[in-house]
Write a structure and sequence with these properties.
Helix content: 25-40%
Radius of gyration: 18 Å
CATH topology: Metallo-beta-lactamase, Chain A
Protein name: Glyoxylase, beta-lactamase superfamily II
CATH architecture: 4-Layer Sandwich
Number of helices: 12
Order of helices and strands: EEEEHEHHEHHHEEEEEEEHEEHHHHH
Oligomer: single chain
Largest sheet: 7 strands, mixed
Strand content: 15-25%
Number of strands: 15
Length: about 300
């Protein structure tokens, strides 16, 4: 299948083809004694992910584990569908996200408020997962991949309060979710993901420091793909966060409303990213992954909380 890329170490990147785009959201299959899927993608992507897993020789009863870095719909929206397709798999998520996978009603209502009519096209509907199949992770925890191989889970909030990073004991790969931001491989652009309501600058920077201390060999971005230049990428991520926060602070201190703040930050950051110089589709992809209005409103929300 043309949406599967072997990354070595029995790890396979699966392009989930979110919203019909390629190279926008990845799931990762780790083969071995206990096959494990990291990230499901959206509900609308679930059949694509299922077929990719099947093509790699993993049958309906063979998938042992499905783990998500956090419960946002581009990462975990397909959990209920994948759980149905693979009835023997344990569903693993941080304890702060577990109840929302069992009962997604509040999560879906919130997403509907944010995305409106685009919700169905972009994400579909997160189906409930039987609570008995869900394993809630502590702040540090371990997932058994079989044969002595493990994924170590590390609580890494800042982007979301239910976010974890996952490091593979065999490859040194660190699955970073959205904590390091959004990476566009065709341009090398890296941009933060700071949506409301959970963004917190100090917490996000602490999570990057935690990732640095784990000494990974490679970063595996959910958006999108592997990056081998670990330390400089983590440094860039911290710099990007500070740039966006500084610009939004300036808008906030000048009393700008959200629309004017978004316009200012978009203009001041545009030249930082090659995606906007290449073509309209690449720019559109980048904006879908890390929308300026979401980033700015998340930082504004944090600033308002900090002042109260």
């Amino acid at each position: 299948m043309d949406n599967i890329t072997p990354l070595g170490g029995d790890v396979y990147e699966i392009d989930t083809r979110m919203a019909g785009y390629s190279g926008i959201t990845a799931g990762y299959l780790i083969l071995g004694d206990r096959p494990c899927l990291v990230e499901t993608g959206t509900s609308t992507s679930a059949p694509i992910v299922r077929d990719a897993i099947a093509s790699l020789g993993v049958g309906p009863d063979d998938l042992a584990t499905v783990v998500v870095t956090h419960i946002h719909l581009d990462h975990a929206g397909g959990v209920g569908d994948i759980a149905r397709f693979f009835p023997s798999a344990e569903i693993v998520v941080h304890e702060k996200g577990a109840r929302h996978l069992a009962d997604p009603s509040r999560l879906m209502a919130s997403a509907k408020m944010v995305w409106g009519d685009r919700l169905d096209t972009l994400f579909g509907t997160l189906s409930p997962t039987d609570a008995a199949r869900i394993r809630a992770l502590d702040d540090t925890d371990t997932i058994d991949l079989g044969g002595g191989r493990t994924l170590s889970s590390h609580y890494s909030p800042g982007h979301a309060k239910h976010h974890v990073g996952l490091i593979d004991s065999e490859t040194g790969d660190l699955y970073v979710g959205d904590a390091v931001g959004v990476y566009l491989p065709e341009t090398g652009d890296l941009r933060p993901a700071t949506p409301p309501p959970d963004f917190d600058l100090a917490t996000a920077l602490n999570s990057l420091e935690l990732f640095r201390a784990l000494s990974p060999q490679r970063l595996l971005f959910s958006h999108y793909g592997p990056v081998a230049d670990v330390q400089s990428t983590l440094e860039r991520s911290a710099e990007e966060l500070r740039v966006w926060v500084d610009l939004t602070k300036r808008a906030h201190s000048e009393g700008m409303d959200l629309d004017h703040a978004v316009a200012m930050v978009a203009e001041r950051t545009r030249e930082r990213y090659r995606a906007h110089q290449i073509d309209e589709e690449t720019s559109e992809k980048f904006e879908l992954l890390s929308p300026v209005p979401f980033n700015v409103s998340g930082i504004m929300h944090w600033l308002d909380r900090s002042e109260s």
